[in-house]
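The methods section describes the discrete structure representation at length, but only in general terms. An entry of this sort, consisting of the sequence and the corresponding backbone structure tokens, reads as follows.
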Amino acid sequence: MTAGTSQDSSGRVRERRTRQPRISIVVPALNEARNLVEVLPTLPPAHEVILVDGGSVDGTVEAAQATLPGIRVVRQLRRGKGNALAAGFAQVTGDVVVMFDADGSADPAEIPVFVDALVSGADFAKGSRFCPGGGSSDITPIRHVGNKFLNTVMNVSFRTRFTDLCYGYNAFWADMIPLLDLPDHELVVPREVGMLWGDGFEIETLINCRFAAAGVAIAEVPSVERDRIFGRSNLRAVSDGLRVLRTLRTEYARARGPVAERLSHSTTPLAS
């Protein structure tokens, strides 16, 4: 497979890709006004920056628009990081998608490294805090142990060699979006139903599983996770860790089951 092309597990070669891709940065946010004022001016030049707002009440949208005129704003209709990313992906018009957190933990200077990995032949550039050159000043001991366990389950189940499973700094070619088969981001469900499969923090794991199951070319990119600038994370170590474990089990079954059974998971409610 030559640089600039991609080949899926069926052996089909995808259309030739540009060596100077237009970059679409997707930023999910919920009450991150203070952080966005600090983060947005540090982003490298991009084709577009898409802010997906989850119903913020702190002026997140207004702060983003004042700080980065021209930023595109999408309002998510459900809740959860996964739903926010799906809503953002649906609006992408560039060649490369970069998943970028709004809290200041992701280093914007690393974006060109992710893009270089894609231009060099990867379909999916996966950030890792634990490969050589990576690191974290934010992860807690319990999250570190949990991530190591879940990463091992991933590698055994999908025969991968990942060093970091639960990390949201990733990039991939936009033509890969259909492979993710995410729930319809515009589907509105009663709040008591809970989040749909892929709507929550399990989204990073789901993306890793589906790209691995599809047999696409994956490259790990060393990344240094920084401390959140302001506020507290919405992540809940224990409950979200259990969601990730369930995601691994379900995606393992999905990858090996009949097509109809696998597709049915795309709209399965997931208890919050």
Observations:
- Confidence is low (pLDDT under 50) at residues 1-7, 9-13, 259-272.
